[in-house]
Amino acid sequence: MTICTLKPHDISIAIDGDMYPALDGLVQNGRDCGYGEHLITTNLRSHLKWMERVLLPKRATANAVQFLDPSRREGDPCFDTYKIAGRCTSISRCQRKWKNFELTQEANFCSSTSVICCPLDDIDKDAWSTKYDLLMECPKLVHALLPENNGAPMVRIFDSETRYICMGAIISDRTILTSASCVGTAASLSVQPLENVKNTIQVQKVILHGSFNATDYSNDIAILRIPDSLKWSPRLHPMCLWSNKTHTPLIVEMLYPFNTNDTNIEFLELLTMYNSDCQRTHAHQVRGSHICVKYPYRQYTCLSSHSMLRWEDAEGIPYLIGLATDTRECKEWYYMTFSRLMAFIDWIVDNIEDEEIRRSFKVQ
């Protein structure tokens, strides 16, 4: 059987300077792909709406705008769409949340559209800080370093008895990002950059997300601070943070070591799914700050590894998409959940010092 595709003669589409052939139809019946023969094809233009529904993320709807108790007034306690504790605040004092609402159409309002449920850490904060802008310089920095085989922007994390417990992502020269459920109960921690596993560094400080819930693993994110700055090189560079609040790559990679004695990393391709898919079999509520993924080559997706999700762009720049939540209860889950990085960008920025960000992302 011959499988053919149909495209207009000599028509291509330019995307970011690259040329791609324009696909016009899929052959149903015919011989020799239409050379001297009649063909019956599926007209793809007639199915664009269906393909958009299947391939593109669901667009926000009016249901994303939620009103709390109308009796709640400015100053009353509340929880935002990510179940983070907040306070009913005038939108003029909650510019970050309002900016996010313009992008995602997701917000909890209190008594009116002029009073929004604002996370406590976001009250009276600028929508986009200078630190945020500098952090978003990461792709430029990594590209300038010309990393060897994508470099090694990760560390292995060990407990006080030098047992490997999980992985972390280097996001600036003294800051490592990992899961709160991994490090929250450890008495002391050390890390080994994969670039040099002989270099063991004691962790100076652990910062858990203030709303981390150890029962349902919401807000499962933590920052590790090390005492001295790492030196960037083609083998050691930061992992950039995925900050797009409306789209997530369809295919992502989960990283974890083959074992804890060397620097080998195993890459597993996972498919991002709708959170409603995860909720069907998941033990806890799947929130907007989670990302749902599935391993396509077997029925269950139960990978007991405190790992991370990444996506690599066409230039080889690695982006951190998510951090694995605790999987000890994972037995017959069809899907797996990760903490969605884009939901915590503001929290991450607030917990990195100004000087560190300026130093880390200074492009020569």
TrEMBL record:
InterPro entries: CLIP_Serine_Protease (IPR051333), Peptidase_S1_PA (IPR009003), Peptidase_S1_PA_chymotrypsin (IPR043504), Trypsin_dom (IPR001254). It comes from Aedes aegypti (Yellowfever mosquito). Belongs to the peptidase S1 family. CLIP subfamily. GO terms for biological process: proteolysis. Pfam families: Trypsin. Residues 154-353 form the Peptidase S1 domain. This is AAEL002519-PA. GO terms for molecular function: serine-type endopeptidase activity.
